[in-house]
Amino acid sequence: MQRIRMVVKVGSSSLTDPKTGLLSSEKVHMIIAQLAPVLRDPSYEVILVSSGAIAAGRGKLGWRYMRTLPEKQAASAVGQSLLIDLYQRELALVDRVVAQVLLTRSDMENRHRFVNIRNTLETLLHSDVLPIVNENDTVSVNEIRFGDNDSLAALVAILICAQYLVLLTDIDGLYTGDPRIDQDAKHIAEVTLIDQKIRDLAGDSGSSVGTGGMRTKIDAAEMAMNSGIEVVIAATHEPNVLLRLLQGERIGTRFRAEKSRWNARKSWLVHGSRSAGRLVIDEGAAHAVQTMGGSLLLPGIERVEGRFEEGAIVELIGPNEKVIAKGIVSFSAHDLEYFIKNRADGDHLHGFPEVVHRNDLALLV
Fold this sequence. Notes:
Carbamate kinase; alpha/beta; 15 strands; Archaeosine Trna-guanine Transglycosylase, Chain: A, domain 4; 8-stranded mixed beta sheet; 2 domains
């Protein structure tokens, strides 16, 4: 039987006391109550992406304020075990084992590690274990941070080819304004296209304890939609929200999945990888790549930007200076610059393989 996969993300505001900003065992219990009926149903597989480690650590340490990154990392180191222990005790009531999975952005950007993470999660799901994923704040620095767990949840959903991504928060979806201050704000039940109008509705973070907000949820929704994953933003306090969503009930704001333009490998290229450089290509090469389904060949490259090695991820820049694709390059920047210089000096280069093979290339426009 093919089971339906769902990634559920819970933010800090849904796990903490609004007055103290500390982890609330009552709210964690409410989250487990939402998960329980889905976990009991053999038709579904669930991964939970959970914030809350820093808040838990701050409470244990008695810190009222945290001003530096090392303080936040220390709080996370203390709080992560407390958070998982609380989840484990709650989930024991529904006879479910949990597994802690801590990730950084660099784990997702490295293809080898990406595949290893996927294999681990697949094994956990097949063993009826609930993976609880969080960013590894203890070791993360700005260069390797997701920045918010909404993006992390979207990448996890892409990684395991989930059918649904549910972002649980303290508000029941997207509105035309902030419903907490705008009485005329209207709820938006469905979004089929994320355009600038939708982005403008998102605003900034509405939580003092979270790093995200509606804007990061819109970004995560777009990432997942483009990969063929249905996304729902819904309220944590909505009774039995997860099972009702899976049964087709209209709750929150639903972002309709597009037919994915990419397979799993190319979805990783687009959303999971970080570019190490850029190849500026001419009009003919852009046409071949975009409309003919061709690979990028050496004669079409006008300029190399950045320092990268063979096998790195690069962006392809068209004549209008727009990024048209991402791909895995077959040569280092040094070698490409050497070839381009020799070509400019009148040398004829023959028999070179594709610089970016079409199987390693994902179109963005």
